[in-house]
Amino acid sequence: MIKAILIFNNHGKPRLIRFYQYFTEDMQQQIIRETFHLVSKRDDNVCNFLEGGSLIGGSDYKLIYRHYATLYFVFCVDSSESELGILDLIQVFVETLDKCFENVCELDLIFHMDKVHYILQEVVMGGMVLETNMNEIVAQVEVQNRMEKSEGGLSAAPARAVSAVKNMNLPEIPRNINIGDINIKVPSLSPF
Amino acid sequence: MALKIVKGSIDRMFDKNLQDLVRGIRNHKEDEAKYISTCIDEIKQELKQDNIAVKANAVCKLTYLQMLGYDVSWAAFNIVEVMSSSKFTYKRIGYLAASQCFHESTDVIMLTTNQIRKDLSSPNQYDTGVALTGLSCFVTPDLARDLANDIMTLMSHTKPYIRKKAVLIMYKVFLKYPESLRPAFPRLKEKLEDPDPGVQSAAVNVICELARRNPKNYLSLAPLFFKLMTSSTNNWVLIKIIKLFGALTPLEPRLGKKLIEPLTNLIHSTSAMSLLYECVNTVIAVLISLSSGMPNHSASIQLCVQKLRILIEDSDQNLKYLGLLAMSKILKTHPKSVQSHKDLILQCLDDKDESIRLRALDLLYGMVSKKNLMEIVKKLMLHVDKAEGTTYRDELLTKIIDICSQSNYQYITNFEWYISILVELTRLEGTRHGHLIASQMLDVAIRVKAIRAFAVAQMATLLDNAHLLTGNMQRNGICEVSYAAAWICGEFSEHLENPMQTLEAMLRPKVATLPGHIQAVYVQNAAKLFATVLKSQEGNTDSTAAQETSQLMIERLPLFVQSANLEVQERASCILQLVKYIQKLQQKDVEVAEEVSALFAGELNPVAPKAQKKVPVPEGLDLDAWINEPPSESESEDEQPKAIFTKEETKHSRPRHIEVDEKELARRREARKQEQANNPFYIKASPSSQKVYQDTPGVEHIPVVQIDLSVPLKVPGLPMSDQYVKLEEERRQKERAEKKKKEKKKRKEKRSGRGKKHDSGPESEEDITPAHMVDIVTEEMPENALPSDDDDKDPNDPHKALDIDLDKPLADSEKLPVRSHRAVEAAKSPGEDGDAETVATQQPKKKSGKDKRDDKKKDKDKERKKSKDEKKKKKHKHEEKEEDLLRGEVHEPVVQSEGISQVAELPTSTSAEEAATVAAAEAPVAEVVSGAAQDSEPDEPKDTEMEETKSSKHKKKKQKKEKEEKEKKKKKRHHHHHRHSDGGGEESVQNGTVEEEEPLPSMSNYCLLAENSYIKMVYDIQGNLQDGSQVVVSVIFENKCDSFLKSMEFNVLDSLNSKLQRPEGSGPHDGLTVPFQLPPGVSNEARFVFTVQSIVMPQKLKGTLTFIVKNEESSTHEKLDFKLHFTCTSYLITTPCYSDAYAKLLESGDLKGSSLKLEGVNMPFHHLLARICFHHHFSVVERIDSCSSMYSRSIQGHHVCLLVKSSGQTVSIDAKCDEPTMLGNVLDEIKQTFSQC
């Protein structure tokens, strides 16, 4: 079982946290800090396994991590997981991110935490490895993204409009939209 | 209204989205907290709006803030709102937020049950997927119980994407709701052979997780896993399986033997390091499990060690680490093969990587021998000096102590050396392990009697120099050491060179700065020292010295009397008064020394830490029983208890003791003696262990070798352990030289060659004689100690609940709960208690019944059996070893009956017993197999499975369909989970009719809907348990032509009463798109939900299916009309009913009666019942001979009761129902069913 997945940068700022066991928010932050403390002082040429995180789990648990450029990807796993297997899994996850974001960098993770979560959900579920085939993961993620797009997305259209609108004069815009919206909405509302 | 919407969408435009929030936080680096708090206020405003898009956006931002450590549980309700949005985009956001911040005590989780259930059954697989993913993170026992059944259904979903998620989440469900494990397990097992590799891997994953905690329950799966291991090419699956085998082999050594070969092959062939490593690991596990039985696996050990050495020598630190990790496992059983790589491991101690150093340390533990202990510890001590970080240094410290003290100080040849190592360790600043060092000092000083003089001298020095350490004593744990030092000096004060000086050291004012418990020991032991000093001084003629000592005590002790620590204070004032009294006596010239030292006479014996626990409870003693009856209000309260108490005591304990033993005791004593004789550390001269401890004079009989003169007894200042290493070497060399002299000349030459490189030379253990003949007193254990070792298990482990026997056939009471049943359950609770018992008692019966049938069957099947036996024999040779692991599987009739698909699902069956009957009768194959298992050897299921597939090959065309049906049936099966197996009815079935029962014909509820040359549709209607006004129509579409069928649209002309449920936004005449396409020859199932208002009348709905037939050349549009027939039966739901509740129902008088006579029914009674149960959704309440009462319930809660009687070819059915119209229709339909056959 995987107990937690943490992604944070070289300064310990969390970029994604995913606990598969309940901890309070304070405890989560403490675990992140401790993990960062343990991981960050290690050279890049030492092994990627670490025992001794006292907050999560105890003796059966291990931290398995990889360091990419500015980010640490840390998995906290118990002894039922293969160490090298998890290292591969991290690699698969990062490559998947790379495919989905096209040359992923820390900024992608910062601004699209939700998307990263959705991708992770296709890889690991409830602490167990769900899928390791990258093509399959990417395919599922893309189908879901398409669905989101077809629904108009959460922010797709409005967001673009917003960024355009934000710099403009306020009084003007509502009026314009007002007219347009009423025109569109009224017919469908008339039956009431 | 319109304006409101417009306003909402305008507001919406100025809401921050997640990106804006992140950007904002990044722009407000200085006042981040303030900025976020304004953002949270905004979010609160957004959450108040009606627009779900706004809410979803807000929840999305909250998820981000949660990551930053903000508690967002206040928004839990809004999260639930967003989860229940119909749009995938929002739903996904909601579930993500829930999975991040919901947990078991989140109270709104209760509200989600229905929403999740709806999402799970959503036609959109991604809705289902999102719900499963979310649920996996926050499933609670309640959710697990309520949704287990739905999730189990999803395990057979058509989409592998859903199947794999459903399979994985089952593990979480099992953890939260262990009762679901047994009913779900057969299907989980099925998924091990799923055609989709992802699903297969998920199933392997789940079973491995389960088996890791309770391996013994999963041994029967070993053959299946073995097959997977040899056939799978997926490294993930392989790794999991191989890991699982590692857990299973300790329980079944024969499995290990089988594994060695394929595993070694894999080791040789694989290029994946991860796989190689796991193989090596499991081979090691196998070797460990075999180590007792078979010594001839040295080749495999060599292979492992060799491969591990390659890993350790690799430049990749990860491999190095893992190599060491695995090496430590080999070490436990095959230390010799690891010891040859000592050089490599010592090298790793110098590695820059701490993880690797720690692993190497672990290995050292097992590598020490008498020969190299000193050398290794010396090396470690060097590391201790170098190690700057305290954690690693502490780790080193504990390792040193572990290494030295392991197996009762087995490897220590020179305890003086060990003591000086311990003393050296006290110089470590800031260690947390002062306590550990102290307890080692105490342990050695107490148990190694020969070393006491030396230890006392060392401790005295330590006490003397304590002030050097006191500066930082308070803070660091090392001050614990002075606890040990003081105690040793006091207890063994007779060995002290200069007790007076030590006494003074112990009474220094500085001592008052020590922690209380240490001061207390100081005070107490000062008194012991005082006694010793008095004794030595009283021999002198001059009495002033003794009086001066008393004076010293009187002067110093008041400091401790003022101590804030109670213990210190109490002891100090006692002793102060004592000394004052002594002083008075001394002034009168009375000799007091004898009496004072009598205060501290007698020796303390070491007692094993577990001793108390191991005292066996004497036979007949019930610790929970009252010794005295609880006091009544009677007047004689005061006197009586006393009398009873004394009486009781004599009655209970004393005679018991004598009674129990004599013989038994003598036997045990003998056994113990035997054991002691074999234990090198036991003092054999003394008659019994007990005595040694009691009579201190025993010490004199111990053969203590004269201490080597070259060892200085008095070490000036703190001792150096290094010198012992040198001395030891010298000593050994001397010994060797002596030996050499005695040796013959030829040998002598060889020896001297070795002597030069004696460091690594293979010197045998026997050559080293310890410097001191040491007796190590073993710790005392109570007599008759129980040799149990199970006290380390954690009772709170959630996995304990999953320790469930999976091979027992399912009892009906175990079926997964379906929500609608709970109301019923409450009403019927009185009968429920009996459930478990009946199940238990049924088992043997079942067997006997089966046997009987076996005999009968045997003749019939003789010929078939013959041929099968032959086949089996061939297989036997291959799989002999797996066989009896599988015995359990053969006895799993329920599962097997499911495997053979067209078998009528028997909702009638009042228990697993009857299900077994059917299964056995239906499946002669299974029958033969179990028959064979009984008379000769147990059989493998592979055979059964093979036969199964064969039998289903007959119906190859229908195969797909069958699969679907199987699903259905399973689902239905769960509707009867609470069936009460009535004892009486059961009996009558057993004794009466079982033997004459014949196999039931196959039954299916699917009836033809429509058919043309392209497509065939069959359908079945089921009531929806969750909603009284819904029914689900499952339609199986089968492509009969050679073309591709696509764009299928299913449409029905709604009536006033029954309507097809269409997605929001579509008009009342729109058709529903069937969510799949059909390649040639394929069939698939789709479900359509209808709402109905009245259910008392049957209904017919006209409908049309339109579809496009596409082949290479052309594509044509086709359509097919059909009529959906909603019978009244289809509104009934099989509901179990207990006979007492049934009787009450009939008595209530609310029901109206009607009856029906069927003539010319030519079938056995149990077939008749089965048909009514299967086709009309009834359950049998009670059956006596050829008379049976049955019950069912409509989706709107109408009760339907039947009394079915059969005499000859006439069957009469008396029926009662609270809705006469409905009853009439149901009876008509029953009549219809029987007129057809």
TrEMBL record, chain A:
Localization annotation: Cytoplasmic vesicle membrane; Golgi apparatus
Q: Which InterPro entries match?
A: AP_complex_ssu, AP_mu_sigma_su, APS3, Clathrin_sm-chain_CS, Longin-like_dom_sf
State where it is primarily located: membrane
Its BP terms in the Gene Ontology are: Golgi to vacuole transport; intracellular protein transport
Do the record's keywords include Membrane?
A: yes
> Mind telling me which GO cellular component terms the entry cites?
AP-3 adaptor complex; cytoplasmic vesicle membrane; Golgi apparatus
Report the residue ranges that make up the AP complex mu/sigma subunit domain in this protein. 1-147
Which keywords label this protein? Answer: Cytoplasmic vesicle, Golgi apparatus, Membrane, Protein transport, Transport
For this protein, the record's Pfam families field holds: Clat_adaptor_s (PF01217)
- Its topology with respect to the membrane? Peripheral membrane protein
Function field? Part of the AP-3 complex, an adaptor-related complex which is not clathrin-associated. The complex is associated with the Golgi region as well as more peripheral structures. It facilitates the budding of vesicles from the Golgi membrane and may be directly involved in trafficking to lysosomes. In concert with the BLOC-1 complex, AP-3 is required to target cargos into vesicles assembled at cell bodies for delivery into neurites and nerve terminals.
Q: Which family does it belong to?
A: Belongs to the adaptor complexes small subunit family.
The name on file for this protein is AP-3 complex subunit sigma-2
Identify the taxonomic lineage of the organism of origin: Eukaryota, Metazoa, Chordata, Craniata, Vertebrata
Automatic annotation (TrEMBL), chain B:
**Function according to Swiss-Prot or TrEMBL:** Part of the AP-3 complex, an adaptor-related complex which is not clathrin-associated. The complex is associated with the Golgi region as well as more peripheral structures. It facilitates the budding of vesicles from the Golgi membrane and may be directly involved in trafficking to lysosomes. Involved in process of CD8+ T-cell and NK cell degranulation. In concert with the BLOC-1 complex, AP-3 is required to target cargos into vesicles assembled at cell bodies for delivery into neurites and nerve terminals.
Q: Give positions of region: Disordered.
A: 623-694, 714-1000
Give GO BP annotations, semicolon-separated: anterograde synaptic vesicle transport; Golgi to vacuole transport; neurotransmitter receptor transport, postsynaptic endosome to lysosome; protein targeting to vacuole; synaptic vesicle budding from endosome; synaptic vesicle membrane organization
Where do Basic residues bias regions lie?
A: 741-757, 968-980
What organism is recorded for this protein?
Solea senegalensis (Senegalese sole)
Q: Which Pfam families match?
A: Adaptin_N (PF01602), AP3D1 (PF06375), Mu_AP3 (PF26171)
The entry assigns this protein to a family as follows: Belongs to the adaptor complexes large subunit family.
UniProt biased composition (Low complexity)? 904-933
| A single cellular component GO annotation | terminal bouton
Q: Where is the composition biased (Basic and acidic residues)?
A: 639-675, 725-740, 795-825, 851-870, 939-951
Name it: AP-3 complex subunit delta-1
- Keyword Repeat set for record: yes
Composition-biased stretches (Acidic residues):
777-794
User: What does the record say about its membrane topology?
Assistant: Peripheral membrane protein
Q: Which InterPro entries match?
A: AP3_complex_dsu, AP3D_dom_metazoa, Clathrin/coatomer_adapt-like_N, Mu_AP3
